[in-house]
TrEMBL record:
It comes from Dietzia cinnamea. The gene is atpH. Keywords: ATP synthesis, Cell membrane, CF(1), Hydrogen ion transport, Ion transport, Membrane, Transport. HAMAP family: ATP_synth_delta_bact. Pfam families: OSCP. GO terms for cellular component: plasma membrane; proton-transporting ATP synthase complex. This is ATP synthase subunit delta. It comes from the Bacteria. This protein is part of the stalk that links CF(0) to CF(1). It either transmits conformational changes from CF(0) to CF(1) or is implicated in proton conduction. F(1)F(0) ATP synthase produces ATP from ADP in the presence of a proton or sodium gradient. F-type ATPases consist of two structural domains, F(1) containing the extramembraneous catalytic core and F(0) containing the membrane proton channel, linked together by a central stalk and a peripheral stalk. During catalysis, ATP synthesis in the catalytic domain of F(1) is coupled via a rotary mechanism of the central stalk subunits to proton translocation. It is found in: Cell membrane; Membrane. Transmembrane segments: none annotated. Belongs to the ATPase delta chain family.
Length: 272
């Protein structure tokens, strides 16, 4: 995003946080706002002239807001409408970035609903695991990524896999991601998982190990990484038996390779 859009997103995000914090039914309201924002995005994606008009910074703010009221005022709840009015009152760099901002806000609204229900870490973990499962099944991921397939068909395919196995928030977030992919589905699920971690005030450490980490190993590693990075990190554990032992830790672009396979590779390089 350009700087203007980042500022617009930050300002609108504050409006979302304030609205949900002031609402005694914040969890239910957050879920509804999230779903309704995705419905708004659907309308904007299907109507280019409307998408351009609501992001037109040369038009008066009142005109943009009146347009939003006319199109969406009877379709969404007041909390969602107020958030939309706040969004279009800001100066977004272009319509595409307004659309992207509404998607991020929709995701955050759903994540905050999970937070209100004490499920935010569960949703974060479920999305991470879903990303790894999809990444490990090329045929399934290609079916979800197929841009020629109807969005409803991809949602139905995903629902068959998720039904009864994840929280409602995880299913809603995953469903919207396959309907409007930003990249490959596995990457999109992982990105939303990172957004959940950030909402908890944590960066993500992806730890790949030969076997699943025990609870004690996870706690020990979390403490060591906190001492290295000076803050708490969310631990996402991926399993790869090819590592033989040890673990590979990725935090952002930084990789710490303490696996047996990594040490053997390093040894081979020194012997060449």
């Amino acid at each position: 995003m350009h700087a203007a859009s980042r500022d617009a997103l930050d300002q609108t995000r504050e409006a979302l946080k304030s609205a949900l914090a002031a609402d005694p039914a914040g969890g239910a309201t957050g879920a509804k706002v999230g779903q309704e924002l995705f419905q708004v995005v659907d309308v904007l994606e299907d109507n280019r002239s409307l998408r351009v008009a609501v992001a037109d910074t040369s038009a008066p703010v009142e005109a943009r807001q009146d347009l939003v009221r006319g199109v969406f005022g009877w379709k969404v709840d007041q909390t969602t409408l107020d958030l939309l009015l706040a969004a279009v009152s800001r100066d977004w760099s272009n319509p595409r970035e307004l659309r992207a901002g509404l998607i991020l806000l929709g995701r955050e609204a759903l994540l905050r609903s999970a937070e209100q229900q004490g499920q935010l870490q569960t949703v974060e973990d479920e999305l991470f695991r879903l990303g790894r499962i999809v990444a490990g099944d090329a045929e399934f991921e290609q079916a979800l990524a197929d841009k020629t397939a109807p969005a409803d068909a991809k949602r139905a395919l995903l629902a068959q896999v998720l039904y009864g196995k994840v929280t409602a928030v995880t299913e809603a977030l995953a469903s919207q991601a396959v309907a409007r992919p930003a990249g490959m589905p596995a990457d999109d699920f992982m990105e939303i998982s990172r957004q959940a971690a950030e909402l908890r005030g944590r960066a993500v450490a992806v730890v790949t190990s030969a076997e699943p980490l025990t609870e004690q190993q996870t706690d020990d590693l979390r403490g060591r990484l906190a001492s290295i990075y000076g803050r708490e990190l969310a631990i996402h554990n991926d399993v790869d038996p090819a590592l033989l032992g040890g673990a590979v830790v990725r935090v952002g672009d930084e990789i710490i390779d303490g696996s047996v396979a990594g040490r053997l590779d390093a040894l081979r390089r020194t012997l060449r």
